[in-house]
C-alpha cells in the first residue's frame, strides 16, 4: 500500500508561526486551523509556491479575522448573559457585572450571588459560542440558586446543548491535564 507524499514547511507570516503541509491526497481545497500555538495550513502538493504563498497569507488573515470575531469583550459577555437570562431563565437572573478573568485555574466560571458578579475564565476564549453560553448560563443560574442541587439543574434543563457543552469542557480539561470543573 502506497502512502501519500506529504511535505511540511515552517515559516512566519505577519508575525504568525505557520506550518504549511502539502499533501498529494489533497486536490483543490486549502484549509487552516490552530494547533499548539501555530497556524497549520493544508495545501495540495501540486500547488505552485507562488499560489501557496498567496493562500498562506489569505488563511492567516482569515483565521485572524475569525479569532477577532470570537473574542468577546466584557461588554459583549454582559449583553450575552442578559440575552441568555431572558431566553432560559425568564429574565430573572440579572448580573451586576460579567467579565473575563485570567486568575481562575480550577473553574471555568464563578459567581458571587450576594454581589451579582460573574467571572469567566479566559481559558474559554476561542471555544465555541455554545460552550461559553453554557458556562454563562450556569453562572446566571447561581444568581437564582447558589448550590448544585436538583433545583439548580432544573434551571439549566432548557439549554439544548447542556450535556454536549459539559462533555466538551470535560474533554478539554482531560486533554490539557487541567483540573477544571463546572460543578
Task: Please supply descriptive tags for the structure shown above.
183 residues; alpha/beta; four-stranded mixed β-sheet; three-stranded mixed β-sheet; 5 helices; 7 strands; 23% strand; elongated
Task: Report on the architecture of this protein.
- With 183 residues, this protein is of the alpha/beta class.
- It is 42% helix and 23% strand.
- The chain contains five helices and seven strands, in the order E-E-E-E-H-H-E-E-E-H-H-H.
- A hairpin with a 2-residue loop joins strand 1 and strand 2.
- Helix 2 (74-89) packs across helix 3 (129-144).
- The longest helix has 22 residues, at 49-70.
Number of extended strands: 7
Q: In terms of quaternary structure, what is this? A: single chain
Secondary-structure element pattern, one letter each: EEEEHHEEEHHH
Structural class assignment: alpha/beta
Terminal CA distance reads 49 Å
Morphology: elongated
Number of helices: 5
Low-pLDDT runs of 5+ residues are: none
Give the SSE layout.
Layout: E1 6-13, E2 16-23, E3 31-35, E4 38-44, H1 49-70, H2 74-89, E5 97-101, E6 109-112, E7 117-121, H3 129-144, H4 150-156, H5 162-176
Parallel strand pairs: 2-4, 5-7
Antiparallel strand pairs: 1-2, 3-4, 6-7
